[in-house]
Structures are given as structure tokens and as C-alpha cells.
Design brief:
The structure is a homodimer. By secondary structure, chain A is an alpha/beta fold. Chain A contains 23 helices and 16 strands.
Chain lengths: ~725, ~725
């Protein structure tokens, strides 16, 4: 007996590791075989497929499900025509098979893109139904069911009703026509200046569309907001049309960033003044031309009079004038204008207060198909900012949030920083616009201000790298953005767990510690880069690494770190109180008072709103200097801990991805120490206070760090 | 040349340490010589004294200043009659010398106890004036000037106008007539059952009165709120009268805790029913008897129908009935009733909500000379609680806060815990009673609700120990309470610095690290005892050490730790949300919503308001279990750091106090580890989660800790 056990054990240990190397190119859509128990469960529940509908979208849904089912269970589905035990019926409300189920009451809650998944009794057993008002809803429902199977959930008794929180859920690619990607850290553009055959590219675009559809993203702007006017030439319109054809079965609309000066630059007009009838006509004609090729074209995204981009103010007009002119050109085609509020100029007003000041006067004065796109924070996409006061401020015109998936300020593709926690922090933030219960999410999803047009966007982090995002964990942010855009009440942790299971492995001994790293990762980055509300102290131009000391002769003050940290022998931080730049007054009561008072402001925004002496005492009794230093060290400790945790997870996933991630985590710790030492040593030249004695000494020397120069442009 | 330097160095090192051992008995009133430069400055500024007035209080002020000046500078002051260069003139407004200075406008701001300190020009130079409307004001002004000298401030150009925030600033002694002190950790009572001669005792009482006057405390209740009826017998009234005589020159009133059942117990009446005319008459007679002996007697403090004490509800009457009966007895004599709202009974309502429910119906129904005394937190004096919702809740009747100086729940006299930061946290807490700007302080100081009667109190920490408070740093809490009662806008740090300089030494190399320890100390205690809003998990009855596991058969549930921590396999914390005991609804909007939402509630009150699963994620991404464990370890790390810092300060102060404090800090670390290990290991039996791998392992074993039993009663 014991001999038998022994030889079994030997056999077990001699078995080759069968986990094959993976590149990450399949994202969370790997569809690899599940364990036997799950296979049995799923093939018991579903054995055949009935597709009640025949358009391209529902066909894509059917194809996806068959592929997923085959991959996950090793079994093919029979295609049948009549409901019966073990069938999966997918279809739209107008189809007779769905009508017979009398779901209309519930379908009313689903809107145009929502869906129902339900287990219903039939003769001899039960079947599963995915029903929706449109094929798009069926597609999203199908991906929902697939996700349940991918994550090992039971599908024996389903009762799901879903609809998305925002109508438009869109990615912004900052891709230039020459193939570079602004703030891209995963290789060059997948869209532009590509040498590959169309067959290769179109396969990739289809995968991209599937990935987006799987998380509910229904649109994408594929070129940079710093837009090249040439994108409006026939050559590019044709390119866009070919891509749109691939997107269409996945309910993805294509949008375009346009340059406000296009009429003059490529249209040969005298100017691009929005009050010039020729300019107005030019945009109308251009819109008609686009819609000729792309009937479901989404619309324009515009960065105007911002960081040197042309705009209506070049002609003495306003943002309203510019946006409304474009809106009118698109109205006949149901296109929209996403007009960015990311505006600031050197001048009397501090950067963070300008967008609000500039846009609030136009509240309610935009055309119905204009939506104002606002970055989550009033400065930029810092690791932590207060939310932009335009959320809850602007009430009559619709406002959409712009997040940044690409990690411009959070470690590029070197650092593991799971951003769902950051986005949830903003979406859940209380604006008090209509008293308690006025979260940022509710100010933008139509709940509070009854807008029809609702949207949410995020700057993409993908490029031509084999794993799409440079860092394997960058994929999780693409995934999480989609999931939150659909339902911001999801927990970051649950989203992380789904993603880990689909992307890596199901074993809880792997899943739990990895989710733990993810959940702690953003705060770790904040701590080693920008604790206590510090911000904008990264390297000049490329934004890589710490440069609190940067001084570029002749540079705009509001592009220099010292504008933001204000470190001196007295103290540190940005005074945005009523005594300072007065950003606080742009918030509703009581937030205006809470932010204005260093006793009441949340500790993690202390230096965002206040300039305080080095020996200022925090509520926990620590001196500001000590508290700041502890935070920097805490960030590094966390990065080290992530390495430690990851190292113990070897063997749970394929060796390739394990080692690639291991390498990145090591790099993250190295760079975390760089940040910590640079900031602590630099600020110490002002505070003249010691690093608490129980902490390890800095590894680097300040002068050595100051000498580091990086010849990089946007990193890709 | 180098030989000379060498021998000077040798000489320096050979000099004996001239710092004499100190016992701490002189508190912060040591009046030891300052360094030469200061002596020169002060004797330049002040060389003579003019006392414009001749009552006992102004005489005490003059005596104090002469003693202080002599001690600090080694010089005696000439007593003179006419203003001139180098004079210090102290006097009240009606005195001609003060009238001549035309200060009446400024004196209007001072009220009955405030004062002006001003440098005024005279022929041949300048003189210093302390002026006030009453002798009491002169006394407080004199102590202010002394404090400036004690702390080395310049007195060459003074321009001070002060008045106290609260009218009544009172200590509560929990001293029993048998000489024990409930929750006293510094020896037996200084008031009762004392064998010493009156000369010895009266000298101590005078020192006590001086110490209180030096920080503005103007009243004291010398017996326990769990009051012995015998305190109202002639024997004790005479004792009180003798003590009151000593207090009088220091503007200190004496108050008495009384037992509601006194008429029956010592008066021989049938009952103590407040509606019984005989009872009412008994109290009137008793008040007259007291005022006969003590014309400036302050009034009564009453704990009724609370923790077994008798009260009006024993006769079907209410708190209002009881308080008003006593109030009427005192009205003719200008006495007041401080009626405690610390009430709770086992029953349907959770402990923390009961005081509000029981007292709010009587808002506005008390006599004018009744003030409701409310503990800072709704449960008790835990290391951290939310503030009691009666602050800002009760608006028509005046409310006073009761703090606890004695460290019942913060390490007794073993732990260094500077409590000013805790009290400031409460005083500064925003109630939103009348929108932003309605701090707890402003709800009780007359600002918001226009009450004439305002007061603040704290339970004293003193006893017969030579240094008064057991722990030398316990003195700082007595000191800080007085300073905050006078001016709650003072910074805890500035108060600490004053106290350290007066109590120990002026050298900034000593002062700064010691102030740093003090400022961090309360949060450290919170962390190793009760992080994240945990509370009431201390030892049964004596409240010493951790006992989260306590189970006493037949004990009241609301006296057991499990009632408060609710640890289970699911999670931990007290649900006081709208789904739980609903304490949240007793707060004004938006606090009610903020506290109700685990996303919005401050992290340090998370488990005070919420019962959450062990894997609940905090805003910083940490799991609740991990976050809690980190906090426990952080607390211990801080205690260790305090030792480390203190050890490096040897030689700055006398060896006796240095070593005594060193010993206590060691004890504090030992007990911090005990708390940490006990709580982490105990809660781990529910969470079944590991202690994060990078942390040291617990030193103790849970079973071993559970066996510890202490046969102590109130510790003194």
C-alpha cells in the first residue's frame, strides 16, 4: 500500500510542468481549458445554441460563445433551432422565441445596450437565455456569460439584469499619424504608419474590438487629441472606414480627434473662425464626407486652445462658439462633439482653477450633442488629485470624465499600478452638488441632472507590444476601465479577481495575493512618488522619474515642479485655500470649507490644498516632514513587499509571464527607491530636518540623481 | 595655543553634572534660574513692582510674581508706589493708576477673568502693565507673564489681550471619602482620609491652587461622582470650607459631587423623590448650610440613574425633574448644577445612542443654572471615539464637555500619552449643527447657541504620589487641559513646548524630540490598543491591559468587550449605521451620511461605525485584517522609538526624572507588545488570516496571555 502511494508521489513530481509559456497577447480572452469539474457543470448546463437573429452583431456574439465554450470545455455546441433542455438561446426582443418568454417588463430596464441572462424551465429540464432589446445587448450578455464561465462561477441558475451606467464608453488613443504614441509605453501605434499587411492588422483590430466588447467599451478615438489636420483628408477617412467595418460587429463606434485649424490648414480657407460661414460649411461638408464612408461614425473629440492647440479663441470666439459650430455640422448625422475642458494658460490664475473659470459661464449654452470632457483632476492625471470641481459644478450641460489608463504619472509601463481604486475614488467622491449622495459618477451619468447624453472616457495604454500594454498588469487597467464604465458600483477587488482568474490562473493561493498586490499598488505609487497631496514633481517633458528640482530657463512656470511643491525653508505644498489660489471655492459646501481647513482636509490631499510649515503637525501627531518621509519609505516598503509576494508565486503561471512580471517588479522597486531618495533628499535641502533615525539611509546621493538625464520622447 | 584648547576641553568634561535630582513635586512651577542672557533681559525690563489693589487675590498674584522673579533671575523686585521706567504695574480697572492708562476699550474685551499685558512708555523708558476688570484677571495675567519668562520669551514689548473661552473650567476628582481614587493611578486621595497635619496638607492645597490658577482652572469638584451621601454632613462641609479658604486667593471655587439619595440616606426622609416637598426643602436647607460656610461655593455635580447610582427615575421622575429641583435649591446662592448625561442601561438600545435619546427630550427644559455634562464620546473615554452627538444636538440648554485626564483607557500612569491632541480633535470636530464652523467647542462655549452658562471639565489624574500624577508626563495633561479650557485655539504642540521648557529644560535639542514624542504619543496608544475605531477591549473592571476575550458569566453584555468588537469569522466592528444601532442618525447632515458610509467615514473611526468583513478593502487598498495588524505593529514601533529617542536625551535633565521616565517608557513598550499580541492573536482566531510575512512574529502566546489575572481595584 505504502509502496503504491510512494510511486504515485514520484510520478507526480516527475510530471513535466505543463504550463505553456504565454506572451499575454490574448489578454483576458485566453479561453483555455477549465478543470474537469467545471467542464462537467458547464456542459451539463449548456449543450446547444439557438441564435434568434441574424445580423452581424448577434453573429459575432454566437461566434464568440462557440469559441469560448470550445476553448473552456473542449466541447462544441450543437446549433439548434428549437428551445429545449440544455440550450442557450440568444436573441433580441422582437424575435418570436424571445417574445414567447414574456420578458418585456424586465427588458424595459435594460435600455438599448443592457441584457437579461436567465435560466428558464423547459420540458425535461432548463435552458439559458440571453435576451436584449438590441443585438448589442445580446453581445454584452454573451460576454457576461463567458466571463462567468472563465472565472469558474456557477451558471446553473442565472438571474441577471444589466444595463450600462454611461451611454458612451470610449477609449482615447493618443496616437500620432507618424505611428508614435504620446504617453505610450507599449510600443508604437497599432493604427498608424504600420508596415504590416491588412490581414495581419485587421486580425489585430478584430481582437481589439472583441476585447473592448468583452468589457462593454463601445467606442474609440484612435488618434491623438493633439490632432494632425491631415486626419480629415480622404486618405485617413478611408483608413477609419476600414477599421470601423471591423469594429461594427462588436458594437464599437469610431471617433476622431480633429484639429480646430483644419479648415485653414487642409481646407485652404482663409481662417478657421467659427463665425466664418465658409468654415461652418467646410465642417458640414467634412462631416457629410465622413458619414458617407462611416454611417455610424461617432463624432469628434477636440482639444482646442489648450497647450498650444488652435481653437476658437484665436479668432476672439469662445469654447462655446467652437463646440457649437462643430456640433451643428454633426447633428444631421447623430454625431457628437466631445469638447475638452483641459485648458490653462500662464497668467494670474493658478492652473487648477482655470478650467472651471473658463467653462462655467457656458453651462447650458452648448448644443445638445456637445459633451464637455473633463480630466478627473483639475491639474492633470496626477497619482492623486482632488476631483475637478466641474463635476457637480456644471449642471445644465452634460459633462464626461476623462481618466488616463496609460501611466503617464504612475510609473509608465514599468510599475504595477492597478488604477481601478483610483478611478473609484474619483467616481465615488462626494461633490455635495445636491447634498449628500451627489457622487462624481452621479453628476455625469444622468442621475442628478437628467442629461440624455452621458459618457465616460479614458486614455488608452496600448501599443504594438506583444502583450498590448508593456506591463502585463497594464492589461488590468484596460479591463477595469471597461468594467467600471459599465457599472461603477463594482468593487475594484472583484474586478481584479475576475481579471486575474481570466488572465492567469484560478488557484486561490495565487489569486488572493495577486489581488492584494493590485489593491495596494496605487497607494504604494502615490506614497513613493507624491504622498500627502504632492503632485507634478516628475521629470520634465518625458515625465519619467523624479525631478522636483527641475529648472528650465525660460520655461512656463506652470510646467515646473516648483510651481506645485513650493518647497522652501518655511514649508511645502500648494496653497489653494481662500488665502491662496482659491480652488476651494469652486467646490460645493461643505467641501469648500473642509478643503480650506488643514484640520478637516483629508490627509491624502493636505499638500494639494495647503502650504504648511515643515513642523506642522498632522492629526496623527506626526510632523509634516516626518510624515512625508515615512510615506516615501512606506511606498518603497510596499514595492519590496510586492516582489516578495510575487517571488513566492512561481509555478502557478507560465514561466515567461512570471519572469517578465518579476523583472518589472524589481524595476519598480529600483525606481521607487529612486523617487524616494530624490524627493526626500531634495526636500531636505529646504527642511534641514533629519530623516527619522530608525529608517534606512538613502541609497542615492542627491547630486548624482540630479545629473541623470534621459533622452526620451514620450517613451515609445 | 592647541594646548590651551585641549585643557579647556578637559576642564569642560571634568565639570560635575550640576543638574540636581528633582522629584517632580513642583510641577511646571519650578522657578529655577534662567541663563544669564535672559536674566539680563528680564531685569532690564522689570525692576520694581506696583500693586494697585489690596485684596487676597491680587496679593496672591503679587506674591507669586515676586517668588517667580526671584527664582528665575536671582533678583528681588523693589516694591514701589509710583509708575516709572522698569516697573511692573498690576491692578484692576477701578484703580486710579490703571484708569490713568485709558484701557477701558480693551478691557471691555476681557470680561470678568481676562486681562491685558502691555508695555507702555513712561518718562525715561517703559513699564509693563497687567490690567484687568477683576483681581482674578490680574492673577491670570500675572501667571501669563511668569510663563513667558519661564519659557524664555521676550518681555520687552508686550501687547496681550486675553479672555477665557469657558466661564467655568473645572477639575473633577473621583476621590472617595475613604481616600481611594476611582481610576486614580497616582496614589490615594490628596483630599480625604489623610493622616497628615493640616499644615502639611494646606501647603499642598495651596500648591494645587497655584498650579490650577497658573493654567486658568477656576474650580474643582474634589469628591467622586459616585458620591457618598456623607459628603453632605456637617463634618465634610467644614472640611470643604477649610479647603475653599485656601483656594479663594487663587480664584478657585470648590464644588461637590452629591448623591441623589442623600435626603433619605442622611436626612432621614422617607424618600428622595424630587416631587416630595420635604425633599425639596431638605436640599434648600442643605444649600443654605453650605453657603453659610462657603459663600462662594460653586455648586453640585450629579451622577444620577447611571451605573447603579440613585436618581429621580427611581421615583418615576426624570432627569429634568431631578436637576431642576437641585437647581432651585442653589439659585438663591448663584450655585449651579452640573448634571451628567453619562447614562446607559442594558436594553434594546445600544449603549452609545442612549444618552442622546434620554436627554434630547429635555432640551430647553432645564433651569438656567443647570448645565448638562457630557463625556467627549458617546460610550466613554475610549482612546478614540466619535464625539457625542449631544454636542450640537442639544441647543437650547447649555452643555459642557467632560474629558478624562486620568488615563483609565490610555495606559494608566504607565504610558506616556499626551492628551491635548485627543481633546483638540474633539473640540475642533465639526458638528455641522449650524453648517460648517460649528465645532464641538463652539457648541459649548456660548458662540453658537448664546448661552450665558458655559463650562468645561476633566477628570483629574492626581494623587498623593510625590510627582502628583504617577507618570511625570501625566503632569502635561493637567497642564494642557487648563490651557485648552482657557483657549482651545492653542496648538497642542505649543502647549507641549511651554510645558517641557517649564518642567524640564530649555535646550531645543531636548525640547524638540520630547515634544515630538508627546505629539505622537496618543496615536501610538490608539494604534497598539484600539486602532481603526475599535474600543472597550480592555480588562474587566480594572481596565488594565487587553482582554478582548473577556467573558464573565452573568455580566452585563454592555460591559463585555465582545459587545463592542463583535469579532466573528465574518469580520469585526460595531455596526452603528442605519442598519445597526443607528448612532449615525444622531449626527447632523452631512455627518450622518458620511459616518454611515464605509467609503466616507474617516479611517480612524471605521470600526466604530461599521462591522466589516476581514477582507474589506480600505481606501488605501489594504485588507481590513492587514490594515488592523499593521496599526497594532505601528503602535509598538512608535513606543520603541520613544524609548530610543529618550535614551539619547540623557544629561539634559536631572538623572532622577530621566531614569523614572526611562523606566516608564520601557514599561510602555512591554505593555504595548502585550496589547498588540493579545489583540492580533485573539482576532486571528476569527479571521484565520496570517500576520503579514514581513512583520515580526508575536512574542507572546494567546493562551498564556489569557491566563493573566490582575487583582487590582482602580489601581491606586
Amino acid at each position: 500500500m505504502s509502496g503504491k502511494i510512494c510511486s504515485l508521489l514520484v510520478l507526480f513530481f516527475l510530471l513535466p510542468n505543463v504550463i505553456l509559456a504565454e506572451s499575454g497577447e490574448k489578454l483576458w480572452l485566453r479561453y483555455l481549458p477549465l478543470d474537469n469539474a467545471k467542464v462537467v457543470d458547464y456542459t451539463n448546463a449548456i449543450r446547444s445554441l439557438i441564435v434568434a437573429g441574424d445580423d452581424a452583431v448577434i453573429s459575432a456574439a454566437a461566434e464568440e460563445f462557440q469559441m469560448a465554450f470550445n476553448g473552456l470545455t473542449g466541447n462544441d455546441l450543437r446549433k439548434v433551432n428549437r428551445p429545449g433542455a440544455g440550450a442557450l438561446l440568444i436573441g433580441t426582443a422582437e424575435n418570436r422565441l424571445i417574445r414567447d418568454l414574456e420578458l418585456s417588463k424586465d427588458l424595459e430596464k435594460c435600455g438599448p445596450e443592457g441584457y437579461i441572462i436567465r435560466t428558464v424551465p423547459v420540458r425535461n429540464g432548463q435552458m439559458t437565455v440571453i435576451a436584449a432589446n438590441t443585438s448589442a445587448g445580446v453581445l454584452y450578455g454573451t460576454f457576461d456569460l463567458i466571463r462567468r464561465m472563465q472565472t469558474g462561477e456557477s451558471i446553473a441558475k442565472l438571474e441577471v439584469i444589466e444595463s450600462p451606467a454611461f451611454k458612451i464608453r470610449v477609449l482615447n488613443h493618443w496616437d500620432n499619424l507618424n505611428g508614435t504614441v504620446e504617453r505610450g509605453y507599449a510600443g508604437h501605434s497599432i493604427w498608424f504608419n504600420r508596415p504590416e499587411d491588412w490581414s495581419v492588422r485587421s486580425a489585430q483590430y478584430k481582437f481589439y474590438a472583441r476585447a473592448n466588447a468583452s468589457v462593454g467599451i463601445n467606442g474609440t478615438v484612435i488618434n491623438n487629441v493633439n490632432a494632425d489636420p491631415n486626419v480629415l483628408t480622404a486618405e485617413y477617412i478611408e483608413k477609419y472606414a476600414r477599421i470601423a467595418d471591423i469594429f461594427r460587429p462588436y458594437n464599437m463606434k469610431i471617433y476622431m480627434s480633429v484639429n480646430f485649424a483644419s479648415p485653414a490648414v487642409i481646407g485652404g480657407l482663409e481662417n478657421s473662425d467659427p463665425f466664418n460661414p465658409a468654415v461652418q460649411q467646410w465642417w458640414k461638408d467634412k462631416a457629410a464626407e465622413i458619414y458617407q464612408s462611416i454611417p455610424d461614425f461617432g463624432g469628434f473629440l477636440v482639444k482646442a486652445n489648450s497647450e498650444g492647440q488652435p481653437g476658437p479663441m484665436d479668432y476672439g470666439r469662445t469654447h462655446k462658439d467652437g463646440a457649437n459650430m462643430m456640433a451643428k455640422a454633426l447633428q444631421a448625422h447623430n454625431g457628437i462633439v466631445m469638447w475638452r475642458a483641459f485648458v490653462y494658460e500662464p497668467g494670474d490664475d493658478e492652473r487648477s482653477v482655470q478650467a472651471y473659470n473658463e467653462f462655467m459661464p457656458f453651462d447650458g449654452e452648448f448644443e445638445d450633442n456637445v459633451i464637455v470632457q473633463v480630466k478627473n483632476g483639475p491639474v492633470d492625471f496626477m497619482p492623486r488629485e482632488s476631483f475637478s470641481p466641474l463635476f457637480g459644478g456644471m449642471q445644465k450641460s452634460p459633462v464626461m470624465i476623462e481618466f488616463q489608463i496609460t501611466q503617464e504619472y504612475l510609473g509608465h509601463s514599468n510599475h504595477l499600478a492597478y488604477l481601478s481604486t483610483m478611478w473609484k475614488e474619483v467616481l465615488d467622491a462626494e461633490t455635495f452638488a445636491k447634498g449628500v449622495g451627489s457622487s462624481v459618477a452621479k453628476t455625469t451619468d444622468g442621475t442628478l441632472f437628467n442629461h440624455e447624453l452621458t459618457a465616460i472616457s479614458a486614455v488608452s495604454n496600448i501599443g504594438r507590444d506583444i502583450n498590448w500594454t508593456g506591463h502585463h498588469f497594464g492589461q488590468s487597467n484596460w479591463y477595469a476601465f471597461g468594467r467600471l464604465a459599465w457599472d461603477y458600483d463594482l468593487l475594484s477587488e472583484d474586478i481584479a479577481e475576475e481579471w486575474v482568474k481570466m488572465t492567469f490562473a484560478h488557484d486561490q493561493k495565487f489569486v488572493e495575493p495577486v489581488v492584494d498586490i493590485m489593491m495596494r499598488s496605487r497607494e504604494a505609487v502615490v506614497n513613493y512618488m507624491n504622498p500627502l497631496g504632492l503632485h507634478h514633481i516628475m521629470g520634465w517633458d518625458h515625465h519619467f522619474g523624479p525631478e522636483p528640482w527641475t529648472d528650465i530657463p525660460g520655461a512656463r512656470e506652470d510646467w515646473l515642479p516648483r510651481y506645485y511643491h513650493n518647497a522652501s525653508e518655511f514649508g511645502i505644498g500648494f496653497d489653494r485655500t481662500t488665502n491662496g489660489s482659491n480652488l476651494v471655492s469652486q467646490y460645493h459646501s461643505p467641501l469648500n470649507k473642509i478643503y480650506n481647513d488643514p484640520l478637516l482636509v483629508p490627509e491624502n490631499l493636505l499638500l494639494w490644498f495647503h502650504h504648511l510649515p515643515w513642523n506642522y503637525r498632522l492629526q496623527n501627531g506626526l510632523k509634516l516632514w516626518d510624515a512625508m518621509v515615512y510615506k516615501y519609505y512606506e511606498g518603497v516598503d510596499e514595492a519590496r513587499l510586492f516582489q516578495n509576494i510575487w517571488d513566492r508565486l512561481e509555478g502557478y503561471i507560465d514561466d515567461r509571464r512570471f519572469k517578465e512580471i518579476q523583472f518589472k517588479l524589481k524595476l519598480q522597486t529600483t525606481e521607487a527607491i529612486w523617487w524616494r531618495d530624490a524627493c526626500v533628499l531634495y526636500f531636505q535641502t529646504y527642511s534641514n530636518l533629519p530623516i527619522p533615525s530608525e529608517l534606512e539611509r538613502p541609497i542615492h546621493d542627491l547630486d548624482e540623481l540630479k545629473e541623470l538625464k534621459f533622452d526620451m520622447k514620450h517613451h515609445n
